[in-house]
Fold each of these.
Amino acid sequence: MTDLSTFVPENADDLLDVITEKASEAAGGKWNAVKDQIQGDLDFIANRAVKITAMLLAGEISQSDADLKMHLLELTLNNTLAEITVLAYVVAQAILNAVVDVVKAVIKNATGVELDF
């Protein structure tokens, strides 16, 4: 199990692995029913989160900009989860929370900035 308090991925693939780990834990027995439908979104979020973290570190965007960008990614995943009819709301929310928690931790660990999205 990955400790989010110290996790800083080397690349998007490392981040995707942990996002997938935490999302599957959150989904429990429903993971196999949804993983194929959300894997593309999780991959996109991992890649964008790494880029957003790099831009934040380089001072290219503000904390407010990073919050907005990450919130938009959160909404994208939420829309995908809402379309999955076999997924109960509680499980969908657990997956969404798990993904958001990983990305927030990574950005905080890498930049020292705690986002509010």
Amino acid sequence: MLKAKKCEIQIKRMNTEKHGMWKEGIDRVREIVEWTDIMLKFKPDLEFSADNPEEHMAKSYPLRFARQKELAERAGMGDMNGYINIAGLAQTAFNNPKTLALMKKENTMINQFNKEE
């Protein structure tokens, strides 16, 4: 009798788990459909390719590093290791010829960043 009760409880737990997985699967499929619709709607207006997630990096990363470097200098260097990391990333990004060409083409913050150094 006790063994049957344990099996019954185990079956109920497994059914509950199965139902939760089913609900999560439905939700994930819904998200995929919605994001696909959103991407198709905005695809003509995208600045970068929707198919290559790395395409934006040559523009967005150097800008991010420059902004982080500026904020770190304004706020003070409480986190020296963090500042060194950001400064190194910014220097690497701004020494990349492809990045410099893209930023010149996009007429972004390159002149301001070079003046600070």
Amino acid sequence: MIEYVNLKPNERATHIRIDMYYRKDSTPRAPRGYYLSVFPVTRETRHGVTLESMECFSGSVRLLMEVSRKSAKAEKEAQERADLIRDIMVARMCSQHGLEVEE
């Protein structure tokens, strides 16, 4: 699931990208499971193609749920958890980078 939140005009970014995803490979620092990432991006369309750019290390990632394998049940639960913390992560991202969400 990827969604975008529009930002008020500024010099840093046009949107905040919110992405919930499943990470299959496991490392000691990043276990297998469902994650939520939030980061500012600049989106623009040229010749019918949408381009997206971002600053390195400007985003935030949070483990929603550690699982041993991907399943529909686990994905649904992870989505529910993501819905609970998404707005908090967006607000924190905005305050850290001086951004404002467009209403």
